[in-house]
Here is the input.
Amino acid sequence: LQRRFKHNWFVEGTAGGSEQGDFVYGARLGQFFNSAFGWSLAWQGNARATDSIPLQYLDGRSNRLELDITTRIAPRINMNFGALYQWTSVDGQRLGRGYTLHGGIDVTLLTETSKRPEVSAGWFGSFSRFSNGGADPALRQRIEDSMNNSDRILANSLSAEMNNGLDALVDPRTHREGLQVTVRKHFGKNTDIYVQGGLYYEVDDRSMNAIGALGVEHYFSDAALLYAEIKFDTSGRGASTGAGVWEANVGGKLSF
Here is the structure.
């Protein structure tokens, strides 16, 4: 649920569950971006950990504290940056903790008209570190057993190049720098469709990768939104291959 106030301030609360019976909750406070500046500070409790396919298979959970800031530095140039700190566990067993710093600059190349879409391009980057040195010994043993094929589904998804099986759950070091193009078009007053594509360099792995996304947003009213998105990343770990990962999201938002 989200409540809006004067001067673009808002507060937001979330609560839900998963098919495994996990209770998920969170809160967010901030100011909407108003063509000049916006920010938010958020807490997520027991959220689904999506750092890798093996971690999702194990139903990993994270507590996260995140700060996001967006500002306009020129009429057609926006900049965003943020920071995240997370504590991650599996079945209540501690896996580790880490942080991520991220940012980007987006330049509007073409504004939208009745005959053409909006086109923007920009730079994005992220820097992450995660430590599993304090992982629960029982969890460490479980992963080692899985790598010995006691759990074939999980074993197939763990990278053979990892010196430590826990490193396959959350990469201990990531540093990405890339460029991305977004094409966005409104259809009528209520529907918005966008396509994204880009390339980024994985500094730690010294590899070039591609990303893409296709999404749609439909506003039933100023207070009700339904969205769907599909994304692809060639660097993601699949369930049995390192050839990439597809991700699909469907959701809605109701404001009051």
The mean pLDDT is 87. The helical segments are 53-57, 137-150, 152-157. The first helix runs from residue 53 to 57.
